[in-house]
């Protein structure tokens, strides 16, 4: 039968990369294309197996005629195996065994199969949509139309507010919004919203009708995709500057509302008024949408819901990324803040300044981020959050915005201070209890004991340049603070200090140079400095890098070279978390092993600690000091039981003093208290408290 339209939709969530909405994406696309009259087939979750998907696609090809249309959609993760040398990309299905691909390459769904055996072999017209996290494939010059988006991780391609992949959200919005959609008009609509997916189509492909009647004149063909933020970088920077300016005004510095009625007191109108003033709008409001319609939770002066109610609508699904409605008298910018079953929150700005509306979807993402960001508390950190949200939603930032974010991040890191937490040597008598060493911790201020973990981890989102810069700044601050604290402290001989560092920083010559020059400048004994490498850091080459040796061997030689050149020592941090392995601990030239507090809560904690001690003792390098972090009253193991596993050092709040910028000895009373716990004299362990805020940071602390 001629003029048939087929749609095969595949969605596979991936917990490892936090890919949460791929299956929801595929279901929404199935529903949309089914409504347009396509014969659809959906594969999600455990049903998304390579064999079933390929069999369905082959069947569609075998029954196809020249007048037919095939749409193939995939949301999930992709991978390019190392053995393929970057030439073969796979769509990761539920049953894919990556380790078996080198022996049986056809056991998965290959992009080569999709291209050659399905899309190019289909008798009619074929269209491919891919909204993926992972490795991009190498495309040939296709005889099919394709709109594809690949990102290195799920964070950069999914939006938690709309609960869709960003490309998929815009595809759905266009299909729902326009009465007739061709592939060309769809690509244009996506481009106009600021996304930069790869769009390819043969000359006849732009006119393929995906929604609406097929007998109307064709719409304009797709133009090359570009990012409107390239031209709007100046306007975005001006908007951020305006937001910072208004946030510093006293009347806008009150805490923001989260949107619940119970919290919509005096603080919420200040937040709503702040956004009104920053966008130069006539009025603004926080609206709640339920089955009964819209109602106002908080609003600025002059806001009148009855006046704009005829304009308001609750757009289906993807349109909640942000939209503008208007009539002859007013314009309303609607920005989603929270989407939930039965109740959703919407920020409405009435008649904002016209220049801002030209920013389109980036403006919606900026305002949504601002609602949950406290500009008044830390303008620089808030600006970084806004720019990070833009990068996550649109894949990249223009160079001026990227460089602005880099300088902001450096400034934030340099505004932090350093405090020191002691590593305590255990003993059964008070005279054997003492300070073994210190760990340098980054804090926003001396009085704020909370670790700025989120801001420190943000460097990983932006890449190696940010990671190395973060670690360089904190290294300089930590060494300078350490030199001053020891000069003013009670120790005749310097106590060792440890500083956290990322794997990528140790691979950077710039970081090593800062390490060498700062130690020499301050006159610090390099043997007193230990660099802690987080277990949550993978030891592996980046895409495009070539390491002459296996990863652990390559990194071992790198550390050995730094140790010879500079003289510092190395430790492994967070052992038991992330990429933790006994092989890493055994193969790297380490002098310390820090055991993550999570191991203490394991049912076999005592056996695991014993194994760590054996590995530390019998490794082919110098004996390592084993330090257990986070010993507290909730741990299944007492301090006595830890001591019985031959462990003589712990770190945490057992000195009952917060981390401080100065160094001090342990008081006789505290030493006796710790010794009593080691002996097991005191069974009332509720006095032994480790506060989460004082736990060592992961990287860059």
UniProtKB/TrEMBL annotation:
UniProt superkingdom:
Bacteria
Pfam short name (any one): EAL
Which InterPro entries did the record assign? Caspase-like_dom_sf, Cyclic-di-GMP_PDE-like, EAL_dom, EAL_sf, Pept_C14_caspase
Organism lineage reads as: Bacteria, Bacillati, Actinomycetota, Actinomycetes, Micromonosporales
What protein name applies here?
EAL domain-containing protein
Q: Which PANTHER family match?
A: CYCLIC DI-GMP PHOSPHODIESTERASE PDEF, SIGNALING PROTEIN YKOW
* Species: Paractinoplanes aksuensis
Query: What are the residue boundaries of the EAL domain, all occurrences included?
Result: 398-672
């Amino acid at each position: 039968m001629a003029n048939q339209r087929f749609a095969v939709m595949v969605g596979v969530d991936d917990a490892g990369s936090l890919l949460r909405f791929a299956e929801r994406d595929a279901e929404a696309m199935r529903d949309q294309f089914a409504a347009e009259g396509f014969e659809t087939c959906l594969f999600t979750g455990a049903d998304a197996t390579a064999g079933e998907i390929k069999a369905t696609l082959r069947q569609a090809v075998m029954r196809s005629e020249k007048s037919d249309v095939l749409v193939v959609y995939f949301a999930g993760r992709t991978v390019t195996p190392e053995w393929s040398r970057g030439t073969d990309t796979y769509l990761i299905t539920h049953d894919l065994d990556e380790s078996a691909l080198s022996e049986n390459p056809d056991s998965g769904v290959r992009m080569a199969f999709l291209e050659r055996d399905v899309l190019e072999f289909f008798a009619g017209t074929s269209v491919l949509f891919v909204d993926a996290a992972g490795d991009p494939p190498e495309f040939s010059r296709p005889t099919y139309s394709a709109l594809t988006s690949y990102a290195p991780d799920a964070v950069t391609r999914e939006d938690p507010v709309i609960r869709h992949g960003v490309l998929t959200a815009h595809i759905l919005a266009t299909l729902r919004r326009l009465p007739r959609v061709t592939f060309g008009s769809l690509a244009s609509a996506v481009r106009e919203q600021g996304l930069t997916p790869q769009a390819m189509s043969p000359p006849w492909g732009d006119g393929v009708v995906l929604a609406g009647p097929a007998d109307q004149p064709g719409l304009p063909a797709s133009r090359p995709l570009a990012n409107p933020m390239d031209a709007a970088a100046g306007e975005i920077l001006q908007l951020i500057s305006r937001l910072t300016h208004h946030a510093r005004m006293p009347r806008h510095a009150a805490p923001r509302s989260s949107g619940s009625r119970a919290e919509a007191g005096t603080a919420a109108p200040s937040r709503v008024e702040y956004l009104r003033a920053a966008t130069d709008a006539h009025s603004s409001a926080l609206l709640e949408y339920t089955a009964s319609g819209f109602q106002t939770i908080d609003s600025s002066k002059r806001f009148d819901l009855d006046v704009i109610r005829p304009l308001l609508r609750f757009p289906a699904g993807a349109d909640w990324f942000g939209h503008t409605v208007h009539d002859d008298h007013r314009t309303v910018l609607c920005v989603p803040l929270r989407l939930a079953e039965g109740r959703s929150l919407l920020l409405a700005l009435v008649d904002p300044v016209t220049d801002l509306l030209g920013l389109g979807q980036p403006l919606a993402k900026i305002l949504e981020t601002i609602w949950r960001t406290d500009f008044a508390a830390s303008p620089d950190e808030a600006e970084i959050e806004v720019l990070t949200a833009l990068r996550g939603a649109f894949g990249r930032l223009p160079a001026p915005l990227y460089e602005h974010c880099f300088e902001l991040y450096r400034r934030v890191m340099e505004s932090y201070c350093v405090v020191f937490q002691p590593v305590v040597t255990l003993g059964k008598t008070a005279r054997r209890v003492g300070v073994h060493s210190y760990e340098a911790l980054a804090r926003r201020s001396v009085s704020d004991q909370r670790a700025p973990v989120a801001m420190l981890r943000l460097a990983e989102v932006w890449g190696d340049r940010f990671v190395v810069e973060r670690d360089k700044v904190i290294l300089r601050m930590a060494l300078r603070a350490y030199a001053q604290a020891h000069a003013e402290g009670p120790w005749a001989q310097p106590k060792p200090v440890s500083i956290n560092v990322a794997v990528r920083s140790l691979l950077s010559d710039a970081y090593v140079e800062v390490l060498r020059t700062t130690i020499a400048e301050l006159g610090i004994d390099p043997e007193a400095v230990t660099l802690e490498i987080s277990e949550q850091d993978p030891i592996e080459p980046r895409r495009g890098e070539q390491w002459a040796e296996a990863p652990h061997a390559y990194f071992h030689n790198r550390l050995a070279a730094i140790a010879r050149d500079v003289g510092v020592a190395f430790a492994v941090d967070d052992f038991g978390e992330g990429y933790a392995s006994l092989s890493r601990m055994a193969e790297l030239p380490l002098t310390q092993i820090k055991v993550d507090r999570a191991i203490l809560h394991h049912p076999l904690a005592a056996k695991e600690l014993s194994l760590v001690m054996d590995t530390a003792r019998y490794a082919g390098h110098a004996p390592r000091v084993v330090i257990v972090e986070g010993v507290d009253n909730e741990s299944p193991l007492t301090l006595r039981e830890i001591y019985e596993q031959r462990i003589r050092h712990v770190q945490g709040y057992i000195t009952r003093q917060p981390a401080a910028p100065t160094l001090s000895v342990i008081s006789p009373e505290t030493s006796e208290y710790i010794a009593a716990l080691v002996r097991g004299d005191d069974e009332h362990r509720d006095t032994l408290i480790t506060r989460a805020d004082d736990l060592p940071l992961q990287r860059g602390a």
